[in-house]
Amino acid sequence: MPDLLASAHDGSSLAVVAPASAAPIGAPALSWRDGEILRDGVAHRILAGSIHYFRVHPDLWEDRLRRLAAMGANTVDTYVAWNFHERVEGDIRFDGWRDVERFIRLAGEVGLDVFLRPSPYICAEWSNGGIPFWVSGRVAALRTSDADFLAAVDAWYDELIPRLVPLQASHGGPIVAVQVENEYGSFGSDAAYLAHLSEGLRRRGMVEMLTTADGITPDMIAHGSVPGAMTTFTFGTGVPVAAALRREGEALMCSELWGGWFDHWGERHHVRSADSMGGTVRELLDEGGSVSLYMAHGGTNFGLWNGANHDEVLQPTVTSYDSDAPIGEDGTLGEKFHALRALFAPFHSGELPPVPPQPRRQRAASTALEPVASLLDVVRATPAVGEPSPRPLTFEQLGAEDGLAAYETEVSFPEDATLTVDGLHDRAVVFLDDRRLGVLERDGQTTLALPVEGGGGRLTLLVESLGRINYGPYTGEGKGIMGGVMIGRRFVNGWTHRAIPQTAPDLVGSGGDDGAAVASFDIAEPLDAWLAFPDGSKGMVWLNGFLLGRYWSVGPQETLYAPAPLWREGRNEVVVLDTDGLGSRVEIRERPSFGETEEFIGS
């Protein structure tokens, strides 16, 4: 297939070369020249905010987009999360929640342009940075010109990009800009890889303005940029530094201005004041720059889609991605919303859309949790995967994307023996027969004492992936038991594996201190709500069969967002699977609680 577009590095010359059978297309919406972004030859500012379709229930997409437009944005910025669409190799889905085309069309109907970021890697505090676990499980050199990685990316882009081509502004759609890769300059230095992505977008028909995004250091810009794509920046503060790093002729744009920040389990909830955020946005606009606020509406890491960082220790991200954004997790409009509306209004020729009303919520309620199955009941009801193996298998070898997997074998041991797990990713609850021995953690205790008198029995390790790393050199690492299990100095062999489904346990039994429990609520009208488990320990939560995410007593997050479309009039069922200690009740709350706060302004 011939190239459909060739462009000068400054975006000022765009020549379309289309096959004779192709439908006529218009010119790209945006270009850049002499330090400005141009639209139809006229200076233009991109006033964008990030909303991720995969973090918002699809019934609420239009509501969130309208709130963004009312904030004064003229553009919505979204990633495309590859692993959200291709959880199983070759089974690529664009239906229902994965209908990114519908999200883009809705944005256009609302009056917004779309800044699309379909990079194979997105970071975004999303599991594995958006790369499918089956890719990272077999490719050693992610985000490089490794032949296996490029083959997987090309197969994905062959399905994705043709769906997006008709949605470009040049075809009458809302897409005006496309990002080639994401913060690559802080990861690698494979110029051939970046060129492959850029050329692949053009070859498949993407004619709109291309961009890259990197932090504000010369080294990041040098290794993250690619000819033909405009360099943009990511920062919380640092407008003068970014302005000085612009390449010749390029416009100034911050494609991620961090107006808030995400949270890890065990830390404080990060906030940024409206004055602090607004000051940086104003400084950027006064400098003639364009902006995309990250996040305008953060949404939620529903299910087990949260990522993790690794800074000497694993730092798993919480379920909420509220990010102290101007448009809250449930659509609440805060002080930052009104500050940005005032900053953006002068760049519009007419009146902004009216401010939408605040969302309605269910009234507070509380009900008891009824234990129905112990943790071991859940494990034993799960069928084994494949044949027993001499050594423990990883999640990737088991075909397990995330969540829980049980490792079982028969053991014998002498007096005063110890059990050690080598390469635990990330956390294991250990049982000997029906006796709970304790918890092992990747960056904490990885050895525990077996019963002092010696003996033997059925050893079970229930291993949990807390979130696949999404940023830095450990992106793509595996989950499960990566090495082996030892008693003293010898390996334990003969393992049976069980991948615990990510569906709500439906067992009925006597229950226990840990395991599954059920509660129900009768409601008159499906509205947004916040669920809390005040005396629970560490669990996953399903509402009417939908996996909302995790709670954990280490905080900071104390409530889980349960959007209105997941509720139904009448009886609603909440199921909990707690690995550490079931609580006694579940509460509906009218307001979220994200825990103790800490100010963050970025760099």
Automatic annotation (TrEMBL):
Pfam families: BetaGal_ABD_1, BetaGal_gal-bd, Glyco_hydro_35. Coiled coil: none annotated. Residues 392-499 form the Beta-galactosidase 1-like first all-beta domain. Keywords: Glycosidase, Hydrolase. It is an enzyme of class 3 (hydrolase). It catalyses: Hydrolysis of terminal non-reducing beta-D-galactose residues in beta-D-galactosides. This is Beta-galactosidase. The keyword Chaperone does not apply.
